[in-house]
Please model this.
Amino acid sequence: MSTIGKALSLLDLISRLDRDIGLTDLARLAALDKATARRFLVELESHGFVEQDGETRRYRLGAAPVRLARIRQARFPFVAVAAPFVRALADEAGETVHLSEYSGGRLATIHVEDSSQAHRVIVEIGAALPFHATASGLAFLAFLPEDEIDRALARPLERFTPQTTVDGQAVRGFLREARERGFSINRQGFEMGVISAAAPVLAPNGRPVGALAVAAPTARADMAKMLETGAAVAAAARGIAGTYYGTKR
Amino acid sequence: MSTIGKALSLLDLISRLDRDIGLTDLARLAALDKATARRFLVELESHGFVEQDGETRRYRLGAAPVRLARIRQARFPFVAVAAPFVRALADEAGETVHLSEYSGGRLATIHVEDSSQAHRVIVEIGAALPFHATASGLAFLAFLPEDEIDRALARPLERFTPQTTVDGQAVRGFLREARERGFSINRQGFEMGVISAAAPVLAPNGRPVGALAVAAPTARADMAKMLETGAAVAAAARGIAGTYYGTKR
DNA sequence: GCTTGCGGTTCATTATTTGAACCTGTATTT
DNA sequence: AAATACAGGTTCAAATAATGAACCGCAAGC
Model:
């Protein structure tokens, strides 16, 4: 892997930690030599992507991404455009709704609207959604060209729960269903006690850019219920794409 | 410069452009070989920091910073904490107020509240504020340790307007005044027709982390007016630091 | 006062980056 | 419709930068 790739992966690793981390620990976690990790950190810090605590000497995510994010959002207000749709869907379904975006090889949650109910599914912003084990991932995959689906399913599929589908052919079956229905359903594939329905947000060229999903506790929703909800999810996803890309339909 | 530094500078360059850019142009602007620029772009793209338009083949800022920014903001809600103070000051002063943060060797605007008046100063979010030519920069510099001030003023100071102070000794005089008063004033040093007063936001260890500034049209405000306004700016900056760091004082 | 483990640094070895030249496709010009 | 220009993208020998084992100095724990 290139130096740049390694440095960006290190940044990614730092972003996934929930507290400051020392040089030695970080180097071990990143499988880098201490000297290498240090040089990367110095570079990242000089550009503001990483910050070193003056007292503890530990490292954390810096402020530079905030500046870049504002610039990006000013030009592509995806979250701002989508938020009302997400809110409306959360109210309609009475469940937690989350929006994810494809970026850097992963599907990451970028916006969440919680259900008003006390017992609800909690989704973390920034969390990565595995393609084969979440409704969002399946919805996204389903509308990708065949060769890219092959690539995504080529590696062994990680098991997250006893219900996770780790067989590639079975996953392809779900993708076919999702394409036919316009939305995917996943039951306890990623987290126990959660069932979700998701639809892709499609760019005008037909390529998915992200996914919109409703996540409900299995105590309250079953497959039949999600089949009903799915239509609303798909409609909301189309609404987001239509508003964002300025194409009506 | 290291490869990582070059790649991050390229990213920074892309972030400062207001529209998509082609490979050849970008390589020229960044003073990189086309092949080098391309490899950097591929790396940056695979991590989501850069995005290539499928049709025009041009490049732009990607979505990854949005994810990182959310994580950073969740842990350090600087803007969220500061926003009410900025709003209150904008209402009180009747002028545009902007907050900047030090990151990656520069002072960048991270939040703006516009004055309600029709004729007002416009500040761009993400814009870099030169240390020697803006009230924010002077306020920030003034509270830095001596050796870091030396470093910042070592290079030739760029001239932005006929009024820009480009003499290091004269700048040091402004810094002394700023330390005594607790806020800095700059008149037309960066943009003609604008006068500003700024105060540093100080961490508990006394180190400045950013600056808060009021920017008014010279048609409406003179030096005497800004000397009055300055006290309110300094108070607001202390308020932000107190709330953010949880120290009342 | 000895040991452990931390952040940080050094420098000979090693692997990656570099860029001039080269493709290839597509507008634009003649 | 042939010729030109210029875009994005690729190649591979030469040049340069990255690497990591061993090191230092320091602080905390024993």
In short: Residues 2-3, 22-24, 34-35, 38, 57 of chain B lie near DNA strand D (CB under 10 Å from a C1'). The longest strand of chain B covers residues 208-217.
